[in-house]
Design a protein that fits this description.
This protein is an alpha+beta fold. The protein contains twelve helices and seven strands. It has helices at about 5-10, 20-30, 35, 45-50, 65-80, 140-145, 165, 190-195, 205-215, 235-260, 270-275, 285-295; strands spanning about 90-95, 100-105, 115-120, 155, 190, 220-225, 230-235. The chain has a seven-stranded mixed β-sheet with strand order 3-2-1-4-7-6-5, with helices on both faces. Strand 6 (about 220-225) and strand 7 form a beta hairpin. The radius of gyration is 19 Å and the shape is globular. It starts with a helix and ends in a 13-residue tail after the last helix. The structure holds zinc ion (ZN).
Length: about 300
């Protein structure tokens, strides 16, 4: 059975008009309710640096509904591209309330639908009193959003390709053009440095989350020793792109290291040109093409906005 046909059997998710009753019920569970969310608060310092929406808004959907939709797509993409499996998660900063973020309750990304998305405070508490069990490691997200006003989307995953670089002295560096998105520096956070040698390696409280965010600093990605990585970006599209290409970059680097000899990573100028150049900014056709491609592969193309007409 294809992924698409599996999705087609999911209650409450239909073609195009995917905001069905079940979806709206799920979105309504977010706090504050959508009626309140329709009146944005005065922008503050955080809102001023907000990235433009990842996708073109459709007239019938609120900003929160669009964010929830894109977060569902992001979950499915990361699952299909093997960035996450049963574990790992992706969040987005709340589009109207920057001191909160949207994240699924404790479901695997492959299975997430709009009704699974919960609104959290930066401290990791469900803002609307949702009773469903949250991810243990949700503290990663709030700690990074608190430390980084420029960040609007976060991924945490355990991709095997990057793990060797979390336990060895060999640095993970960008070596292919799409690897540029990981940035010039990828620091390694070792939980044992501050929390000793008796932890289970998981980020299970805010103190650990804040320590990880400190090690991430102003970078796009940090490895977590013997555990995985965090990625942070200005938009959902950018963080998904980073999370998809980081393992590929790590794979190429590992292969080159096995061949021996000197490695030639991207230069800082090449990284800047790739990341900040006009070609792949989130609202370009080239960027949207990747998002649509990944969504199609993940079986959620029916959640995408309609194609532009000539
Ligand atoms: Zn983890």
């Amino acid at each position: 059975m294809s992924k698409k046909s599996k999705r087609g059997n999911s209650p409450g998710v239909g073609r195009r008009g995917f905001i069905t009753a079940a979806t709206v019920a799920g979105a309504a569970a977010l706090a504050p309710p959508l009626a309140a969310a329709a009146t944005p608060r005065a922008p503050d310092a955080v809102a001023k640096v907000a990235a433009p929406p990842t996708r073109v808004a459709e007239g019938t959907m609120s900003e929160v509904e669009l964010a929830v939709r894109d977060l569902v797509i992001a979950n499915r993409i990361l699952a299909h591209e093997n960035v996450v499996d049963a574990y790992g998660h992706v969040s987005i900063r709340h589009p109207l309330h920057p001191e909160r973020y949207l994240l699924s309750w404790s479901r695997s990304p492959e299975q997430i639908e709009a009704g699974d998305i919960v609104e959290f405070t930066l401290g990791g508490e469900p803002a609307g009193g949702d009773q469903r069990p949250p991810y243990l490691e949700r503290f990663i997200h709030g700690a990074i959003y608190a430390a980084r006003p420029d960040v609007h989307a976060v991924v945490h995953a355990h991709s095997v390709e990057v793990l060797p670089f979390s336990i060895s002295a060999t640095k993970l560096r960008p070596v292919i053009h799409d690897g540029a998105f990981i940035g010039a520096e990828v620091p390694v956070w070792d939980i044992a440095e501050k929390f000793g040698h008796e932890t289970d390696l998981l980020v299970s409280n805010m103190a650990q989350g804040r320590d990880l965010a400190r090690r991430l600093g102003g970078n796009q990605m940090a490895l977590m020793r013997g555990h995985g990585f965090v990625a942070a970006a200005a938009s959902l599209y950018e963080v998904v792109r980073l999370a998809v290409y980081a393992p590929r970059n790590a794979h190429v680097l590992q292969a080159a290291l096995l061949m021996g000899g000197k490695i030639k990573p991207l230069s800082k100028g090449e990284i800047t040109a790739r990341v900040e150049g006009p070609t792949l900014q989130p609202n370009t056709a080239a960027a949207q093409r990747a998002w649509a491609y990944w969504a199609q592969r993940a079986g959620v193309a029916d959640l995408l906005p309609p194609r532009p007409t000539k």
